[in-house]
């Protein structure tokens, strides 16, 4: 089957610092894919490469066969949306912020949003549950509310591919589960293709259809969570002893950490 998003022999980095080296993988339409890997392994750099914020040193990134790096800014924004960890929207209401997602669709000399833009913003504010916050200022929202507003703005862009950089960091378990359930619904019900950076291996295993495990600027392993989250690969990549089991209800992999004290008494090392 042809991949909807294809990354082929892709390398990119920063001046004087080469980070991603010959990365290749494909994603099917409507898949919810988690990117895992230790600090500094290149996850954010991969996002910058996919979104063309960083130029390709080698290889290509295509979406439905079209090279993302060759798209105009406007075309790119109609195809791809990013939600970053920190949202700096300051003194702007939630509704104004979500409406910004419609900018890539403005026609020449169209200075204001039209009825269709308001209807689309309304639809996604309702879907994410931030419609009740529409008149609140973005800088007066909690972290979880800001993330939901960020997702609503990204959805208002009506992209084909959504990139989420750790949408659940800083959130309590109620909000983690709320956001991940929403993201799963978006991929499965709306057939939106989603790539999400996530540090929590248990959440990644429970919610994602596929995982990409990064190590030192390359891809170590890709596949369904049960194949990727095994103790051998995790220990090799994170240099940490873990135990893996299966969640008795969901059948998904679960990763346990062991403290130094316990490890020395149980003689696991
Ligand atoms: N703007 C930059 N200029 C130079 N080097 C950078 C820049 N941003 C990141 N790097 C380097 O690139 C490498 C990969 O960083 P990246 O942010 O992609 O990792 P990451 O996997 O997202 O890490 P984390 O989990 O800590 O967010 C690191 O060695 C980092 O120091």
TrEMBL record:
Pfam families: ABC_tran. The keyword ATP-binding applies. The keyword Transport applies. GO terms for molecular function: ATP binding; ATP hydrolysis activity. SMART domains: AAA. Keywords: ATP-binding, Nucleotide-binding, Translocase, Transport. It comes from the Bacteria. Signal peptide: none annotated. InterPro entries: AAA+_ATPase (IPR003593), ABC_transporter-like_ATP-bd (IPR003439), ABC_transporter-like_CS (IPR017871), P-loop_NTPase (IPR027417). Residues 5-241 form the ABC transporter domain. PANTHER family: HEMIN IMPORT ATP-BINDING PROTEIN HMUV. Part of the ABC transporter complex HmuTUV involved in hemin import. Responsible for energy coupling to the transport system. This is ABC transporter ATP-binding protein. The lineage of its organism: Bacteria, Pseudomonadati, Bacteroidota, Bacteroidia, Marinilabiliales.
